[in-house]
Every structure is written in C-alpha cells, then in structure tokens.
C-alpha cells in the first residue's frame, strides 16, 4: 500500500536563472483603514459587522485567514490539500492591518511571515511581500517631508515583521507623481506596481526613436519598464493587466481555476519573445470577502493549474532579477488607478466614487482644512520640538520604533538617543505628546476619508477623530487653540446628510463624543469596578491603572464603592491620581463622582462619611453628600466605554432573563400536549406557544452547555450531558424550534479540539476517541450550530502530512498497528479530509 503523492500540495522548484516561457504574478493589495479609537488605541464594536465584533474581524475570517489556509477539495467536498496562498501570490499587507493581525491572531500573522520566507527560498531570495506607504495616504498630495516619513515608516514596519528590506512598495490607490518617485528612489525602493492607465508613453531604452503613446491604457503589461527621473536615477515599474484585474474584482474570472487560467492565457503575446510576465492585481479582500471561496480558486491555480500548463508562479522582485527592463516609460503627471481625473478624488468634487444624488463638494474644503491644520501643527512641532530633540524630523522618522514597540525600555532608549538634554518626567511627556501629534497629523490624511460619497461615513469621521486628537495634543503641549478656526474652515465642507449640515456638524456630533480624557477613564474604571475584580496593576485599553485603595459595601439594593487609582497613558506617559465614589442604586441607576487626589486625610474623611451614610440607607442624603464632596459633575452607565457598558448591561439583565426563562418554561410545560397536537395534525402552532417552546428549550440547552463548560477539559464525564443535548436537539427539531444558544457553537468546537489534541498528544488512538469526535460533529449539525471546524481540520491535516504520512512512507507501514491505521483514516473521514491509498501492497 503506497500513498499517492498527489495528495500533498505541489511545490515548485527554483526556476532557471535565465527567464524562459510564461511567468504569472497575482498581486493582492491587503489593507484595512485604521479603525481604532485614537484615544483608546482599540477598535470598538461595529454593529454593521455582526455577528463579528468589527469589520477587521469579519474580513479576517472571510479572507485573511482563509488565504493562509486555503482548501483544495475533491468532487465529494473532501479536503485534499491546504495551501498557504501568501506563499505563491505577490502581496502587500498594510502596516495598520498587520499590527492588528499580530495582536488578534498570532498564528495567521506568523503564517504570512512564513509564506514570505518560503517564497524567498523558492525564488532565489526574493520574497512575495512588498511594503506599503505607512497609512495609505495619497502621496502626490502630501508634502515632501510627509512623503519621506510615509516611506520610511512603511519600510521600518516591513523590516520589523519580515526581517528583510523591501524591494518594492505599494502606493495607496497606486497614486504617483515624479516627486514621489524621487523619494522612493532615495529610499532604495526598486520597483512599484501601477495601473496601465497611468503610463503616458514608452520606448526601448537607448532608442532615439519617437516615443509610443500609450495614454489610453495601451501599454504592454507583460514586460517591466524603467522610469527615469530628472537626475538620471530610475525606478522599475510593473503595470498590471487592467482588463483581467478588473474582471477579477467585478467579473467571474475567479469562478474556477481553469476559468482563471483561460482568461490569463488571453494576455499571452504571440511574438516569440523569450519570456513574458502575466501581471494582475486587485484588492486582496477580493479573495474570500468580496468574492466568497475564491481563495480556493487561487490555491488550486497556484499549485496545480499553472504548473500543469508549464507556467512559473513568481513575484515582481524575482522576475526583475532574471529580466532586466529593456523599455523605459514616462508617466502621466499625477495619477491613481481609481480616479479618471488624476488624484482629484481626494481633493475635489470630480464625480469619482459618487453615489446617487450625493455630491462630493465637501472633499475640497476637507482637504484644505486638514492641510491648514497640518501646517499649523508643523509650526507647533518646530517651535516646541527644538526644546526637546536634537533633530526634530529625524526623531519623527525614527518614532516608528516606538509605534512598533511601546515597551518603556524602548521609549527610554529612543528618548535618550534623540533628546537634546536629559529630559525631566514632564518634558518626556511633552516630547511624546509632540510625536503623537505628528503621528495623528499623518493618520488624518488616510485616503479612505475621501474615497466614498459622504464626509460623515465612518472613514471620514475617523480621519476627523485623528485631527481632533492632534488638536488636543497641540493644546496640551503648547497651549495653542486651533480647534475654533479648524471648525470654521470645516464648516465649508457641505454634507449630504441634513442632520450634519457640514463638516463642523460631523465633528461636533460624531467626533467630540468619542474624545476621552483621564477623568473619563477613571469614571470607566470606577463604574466597572463594581463588577470587575481589578488587580493592583491593570491595563485599561491603552492606560495602566494602579489600584491604590478600593472598598465596596452593600446594604439592600444599594452598593457603594470608593477608591483611588493612578492612571498612566502607555502612549504619552501622562498620568493622573484620582479618587472616586460610585453608587449603584439597583437596576440601571448609577451615580459616580470623580476628583483629583488631594490628600490622604481628605480621602479618609470622605470615605468614612459616605460609608456612614450608606448604613442609614438614605439614597437622597448619599447622593447629595457625594455632590457636596465631589461637585455636581457625575457619571453614569452611558459614560462607560461601549464594550464594558454592553457587558454590564448583560449582567444587569441576567435576573430578568432568568425570570422570563422560568415563566416561558412553565407555559411550555403546561401546554406541551397542545403543542404536540398541533404538530401531529400539521397545523401551524400559535406564535405565543411557539415562542414559549423556543425560549424554554433554549434555556434548557443553555444550562447543559454551562455544565459542560464547567467540566472542560475533563472529557470523561460528558456522557450524561451529551445524551441530554441530543434529546434537546430531537425535541427542538420535532417542534421546528429555532434555538438561541450563543455559547453552544464555541463549546462544541472546543470539545472537538480538546478531543483531537488529546489523541495527538500521545498518538494513542481508540475507537472511543474518534467516535466522540464524530458524535460531537453530528450533534452540532443536529443543533444547527454550523460548527467551524477549520482549525481542527488544519491541525489534523498538518499531523497527517508532517508526521503520519512520512512515517508510513519510510517504514512501509510496518511500525503502525493495522487497527490504529484504520482509526487514523476513519478520523480523517469524520473531518472531511481525503486520503487516497493505492491498494497494491
């Protein structure tokens, strides 16, 4: 018995050093705009991304993860291969997206890094990953200093992740002009990728013949070009095939790998040249997010379809290493792929990106307002920065080191290297404030803010949030008041939404409410301390919270907590010492007061007085005394940050939900025979009884799930719970009930994972072990939970092809018990993983 080699994904040998034949490069531009609240440095819940927390998370599961573990299926729907698409496609992964990925899912993040490393090995040291200008600004619209910082930050971010210098760089929206080229050349970037519409004319290098006009997107994209700047320096340019790339994003080219190959094959030139490159590029999110399952098409094309047709899958850097450009190109003055008018989409009402009757008159005043603010912030930075830094612009360029690692040691080393003198603690805070002000002045030019049809969209609001934080930092460090004039200018940006009126309205209604200061963080800490047992040192978003004192007492329905806390920003190191008193009157009523710490004696007296009044259970006197001691300003549940507010709201509704669950359960029990009668006679069940049945059965199921969670990872005592779940599923299906069991899906997935890990840890497999996994999978189907088995399949697939299959190949099965062998194969069947054996031995 031998294992078919076709099961293992095909790998390609190093191509010849001299280019021969057809090469293909598929480039994915993977990018998400920064979505973090600038004050909290975290992404808050986005309801439009439901059932996921936010759009980054949603696209992660639909695209980024799927491309790291792209499936190849047979006709029966069984997995015959798992491919890391990043190992075969050219890609850029925006810095803001990579920083999120690194925190959210280290395994997928690492798989992307490993893919670049593997492509380097396959393609003679030239990796698939290229860098990106840091936060996706439109480079032709940036001043020279910002251009350099964007490139330098993009390069530094790339190096910190991939461990090598980037050879190419992706320009946001492929927006380019000759000033941008000069910056890229000065920073050692060897090539860029552009749309064919951005070329003006071309000719063979060294040929004094007339230029060929290709302004209508007619340039031959199957060869690289050299683009010279005024001083004779040059950068190489690849143009992607416009029609095919457009079809990838908006047509059915990715319907199947054969369809994809056939469409790409139309781009092959029949002029008998020694080699040519088929180059296509599109948003990376096309593969799985915009177009579901298309990552599977790529996986098969890269590892099967293209190699079988004799094509070499490569990347731009590798192709440049074996093909020296023989043609030069002249570019149009300032262009981007997504605007027919150059780069007007990001500064004027050019019509690109319009929606229905919406105008984009707001674009120009928004751009002008932010340009004015940038210049004013530059004055602040220059006026104040020279008091702290030896070279303010070098400090800004190298601040990326701190952005990538905010460990206090890293920050101290950075400040020591760049400070003009030994900075005092207050000077350190101001120095960091200045640099953060500059970081936000760059972030506020993120291109997405202009891309769509309306200024009040999340993208436009987000760049105004960056502007808001930059304004605040400027005020703190230099005492300047720039917000009023900024809003006056912003009022010229006319919104399409009546409620906002203009950019100032958007700022006041959507930006100001998101602003956060130390007092608000303290209020959040105080309110949430009623439900969270905070440690002496705790991280609250991007703040370090040091609990200096905390006491909580409860009398009847009243709960009073009093404490003092020191908060320190992990970004600017500013800190504050506060005392607080928070009263929960029951239900949704909270009363919280905050003030700066003044003295230990005043704090002790305040604490004694309030706890003394609490013993009298006098709500009115307690609230009045809190107002007298702290002032009239107070905070309540709505002042909590969204995540914690939702968590507390859920806790507050537990008692109500439990009472309703018990009530519906009683209604269900009392009317069970009537429900069966309706079901038997195939008569629609009255809505009231159907709802009662669904709530009651869901409640029963939730209790079992909770019991299982309390027993994980002890898998030996699950039998009664699984029997009960099976009975519940049968009952629910008989009555056609839609169950609401939010934790059921993750619980069963966790059980399957624990079961598999237990099997693989000692590789002692039994019939009981694999039947348990099969049983759990079937139970998930019966409960209609739509179990997510991807990670489980990947773990087992990896075990099969890194441990079991090599062992079998080397020993011809002699070291494996036949019964165990059968069980390993059976487990693969349960997980829809196909293994083909030739029954010849």
Oligomer: single chain
- Rg, rounded, reads 31 Å
Class by SSE composition = alpha/beta
Inertia-based shape = globular
Tell me the span between the first and last alpha carbons.
Answer: 4 Å
Q: Write the CATH architecture name of the largest domain.
A: Alpha-Beta Barrel
- Residue fraction in strands: 5-15%
How many domains would you count in the coordinates?
A: 4
Q: What percentage of residues falls in helices of 4 or more residues?
A: 40-55%
Total beta strands:
23
Outline the structure in words.
The chain is an alpha/beta fold. It folds into four domains: 8-335, 7-stranded beta/alpha barrel (Alpha-Beta Barrel); 360-514, no CATH class; 518-652, no CATH class; 688-838. It has 30 helices and 23 strands. The strands form six sheets. Strands 2, 5, 6, 7, 14 and 15 form a six-stranded parallel β-sheet that branches. A six-stranded mixed β-sheet has the order 9-13-12-16-10-11, with helices on one face. A five-stranded antiparallel β-sheet has the order 18-19-20-21-22, with helices on both faces. Strand 6, helix 4 (144-162) and strand 7 form a beta-alpha-beta unit. The radius of gyration is 31 Å and the shape is globular. Residues 1-16 have low confidence and may be disordered.
Keywords:
alpha/beta; 7-stranded beta/alpha barrel; 6-stranded mixed β-sheet; 48% helix; globular; disordered N terminus
């Amino acid at each position: 018995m031998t294992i078919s080699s076709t099961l293992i994904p095909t790998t390609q040998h190093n191509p010849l050093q001299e280019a021969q034949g057809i090469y293909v490069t598929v480039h994915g531009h993977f990018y998400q705009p920064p979505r973090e609240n600038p004050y909290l440095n975290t992404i808050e819940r986005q309801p439009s991304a439901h059932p996921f927390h936010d759009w980054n998370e949603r696209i992660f599961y639909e695209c980024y993860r799927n491309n790291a573990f792209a499936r190849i299926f047979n006709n029966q729907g069984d997995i015959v291969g798992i491919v890391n698409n990043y190992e075969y496609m050219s890609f850029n992964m925006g810095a803001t997206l990579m920083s999120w990925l690194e925190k959210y899912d280290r395994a997928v993040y690492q798989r992307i890094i490993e893919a670049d490393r593997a492509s380097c090995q396959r393609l003679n040291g030239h990796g698939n990953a290229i860098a990106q200008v840091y936060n996706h600004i439109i480079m032709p619209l940036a001043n020279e200093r910002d251009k350099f910082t964007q490139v330098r930050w993009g390069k530094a971010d790339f190096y910190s992740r991939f461990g090598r210098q980037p050879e190419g760089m992706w320009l946001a929206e492929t927006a380019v002009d000759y000033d941008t080229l000069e910056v890229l050349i000065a920073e050692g970037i060897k090539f860029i990728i552009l749309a064919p519409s951005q070329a003006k004319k071309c000719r063979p290098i060294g040929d004094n013949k007339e230029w060929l006009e290709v302004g209508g997107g007619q340039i031959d994209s199957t060869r690289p070009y050299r683009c010279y700047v005024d001083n004779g320096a040059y950068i190489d340019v690849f143009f992607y095939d416009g029609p095919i790339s457009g079809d990838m994003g908006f047509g059915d080219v990715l319907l199947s790998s054969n369809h994809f190959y056939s469409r790409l094959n139309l781009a092959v030139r029949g002029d008998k040249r020694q080699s040519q490159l088929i180059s296509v590029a599109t948003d990376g999110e096309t593969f799985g997010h915009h177009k579901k399952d298309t990552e599977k098409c790529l996986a098969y094309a890269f590892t099967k379809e293209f190699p079988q047709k004799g094509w070499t899958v490569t990347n731009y850097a590798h192709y440049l290493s074996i093909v020296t450009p023989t043609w030069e190109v002249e570019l149009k003055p300032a262009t981007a792929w997504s605007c027919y008018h150059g780069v007007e989409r990001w500064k004027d009402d050019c019509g690109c990106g319009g929606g229905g009757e919406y105008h984009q008159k707001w674009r120009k005043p928004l751009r002008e307002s932010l340009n004015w603010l940038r210049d004013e912030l530059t004055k602040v930075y220059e006026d104040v920065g020279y008091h702290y830094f030896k070279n303010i612009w070098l400090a800004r360029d190298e601040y990326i080191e701190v952005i990538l690692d905010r460990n206090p040691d890293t920050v101290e080393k950075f400040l020591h290297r760049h400070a003009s003198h030994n900075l005092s603690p207050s000077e350190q805070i101001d120095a960091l404030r200045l640099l953060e002000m500059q970081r936000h002045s760059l972030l506020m030019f993120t291109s997405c803010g202009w891309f769509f049809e309306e200024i009040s969209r999340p993208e436009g609001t987000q760049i105004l949030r960056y502007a808001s934080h930059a304004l605040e930092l400027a005020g703190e460090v230099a005492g300047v008041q720039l917000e009023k004039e900024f809003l006056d200018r912003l009022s010229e940006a006319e919104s399409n939404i009546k409620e906002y009126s203009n950019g100032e309205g958007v700022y006041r209604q959507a930006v100001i409410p998101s602003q956060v200061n130390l007092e608000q963080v303290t209020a959040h800490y105080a309110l949430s301390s009623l439900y969270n047992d905070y440690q002496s040192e705790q991280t609250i978003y991007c703040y370090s919270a040091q609990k200096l004192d905390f006491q909580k007492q409860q009398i009847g329905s009243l709960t009073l907590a009093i404490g003092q806390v020191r908060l320190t920003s992990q970004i600017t190191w500013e800190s504050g010492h506060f005392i607080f008193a928070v009263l929960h009157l029951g239900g949704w009523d909270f009363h919280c007061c905050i003030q700066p710490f003044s003295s230990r004696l005043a704090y002790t007296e305040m604490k004694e007085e309030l706890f003394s009044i609490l013993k009298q259970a006098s709500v009115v006197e307690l609230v009045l005394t809190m107002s007298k001691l702290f002032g009239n300003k107070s905070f309540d549940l709505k002042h909590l940050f969204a995540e914690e507010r939702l968590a507390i709201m859920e806790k507050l509704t537990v008692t109500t939900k439990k009472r309703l669950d018990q009530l519906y359960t009683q209604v269900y029990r009392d009317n069970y025979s009537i429900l069966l009668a309706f079901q038997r006679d195939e008569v629609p069940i009255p809505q009231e009884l159907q709802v009662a049945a669904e709530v009651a059965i869901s409640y029963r199921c939730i209790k079992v799930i909770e019991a299982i969670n309390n027993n994980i990872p002890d898998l030996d005592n699950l039998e009664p719970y699984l029997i009960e779940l099976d009975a519940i599923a049968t009952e629910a299906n008989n009555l056609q009930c839609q169950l609401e069991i939010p934790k059921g899906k993750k619980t069963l997935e966790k059980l399957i994972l624990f079961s598999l890990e237990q099997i693989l840890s000692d590789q002692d497999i039994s019939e009981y072990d694999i039947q348990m996994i099969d049983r759990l999978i079937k139970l998930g189907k019966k409960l209609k939970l739509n179990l997510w088995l991807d990670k489980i399949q990947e773990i087992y697939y990896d075990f099969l092809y890194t441990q079991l299959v090599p062992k079998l190949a080397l020993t011809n099965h002699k070291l494996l018990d036949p019964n165990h062998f059968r069980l390993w194969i059976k487990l693969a069947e349960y997980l829809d993983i196909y293994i083909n054996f030739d029954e010849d031995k």
